[in-house]
Amino acid sequence: MTYDPSNIFGKILRGEIPAHKVYEDDAALVMMDIFPQSRGHLLVIPKATSRNLLDADPAALAAVMPLVQRIAKALLAATGADGLRLAQFNEAPAGQTVFHLHFHLIPVYEGTALAPHASGKADDAELAKLAQAIATHLA
Ligand code: AMP
């Protein structure tokens, strides 16, 4: 299977549609998931094009993990979450719905169950506030 640039994250990376951005550099974009499984659910998206883990350039994978760790720490600090889940899906049978590699960072709050994957849409104003709060915690 090949990468199709018309996917929604491709459009966001090209600036064709808006996103609640938390962080961006030459190699990656971090943004709020608009159908969050918990408060603060983030997506880390490498800019190098691949469908998922299986066709990614190993160098791009190696480059993105330190950013995933840095964002995870800022996310916990900003939200006060008790834990955090890192998730990444490969192909539709495994739950992948957007076919541009991305890593989910999902805060977990003691005693609160996660919402189902990609269910309700979050409030835009709330997402904007969270994006700002997480960005201020980035070292
Ligand atoms: P996956 O199932 O791993 O491909 O995850 C795709 C994720 O993208 C889901 O958690 C969706 O909630 C999220 N999503 C879909 N469209 C957008 C969008 N326009 N902006 C932010 N997140 C999105």
Q: C-alpha Rg, in Å? A: 14 Å
Number of domains: 1
Elements, N to C (H/E): HEEEHEEH
Query: Any idea of the CATH class?
Result: Alpha Beta
Written overview of the protein:
The protein has 139 residues and is an alpha+beta fold. The protein has one domain (8-136): HIT family, subunit A (2-Layer Sandwich), CATH 3.30.428.10. It is 29% helix and 18% strand. It contains three helices and five strands; from the N terminus they run αβββαββα. It is globular and about 40 Å long. The protein starts with 7 loop residues before the first helix and ends with a helix. The mean pLDDT is 96. Bound molecules: adenosine monophosphate. Adenosine monophosphate binds at residues 8, 19, 31, 33-35, 43, 89, 95-98, 118.
Task: Outline the fold blueprint.
Blueprint: H1 8-13, E1 21-24, E2 28-32, E3 42-46, H2 58-79, E4 83-87, E5 103-108, H3 124-136
This protein binds adenosine monophosphate.
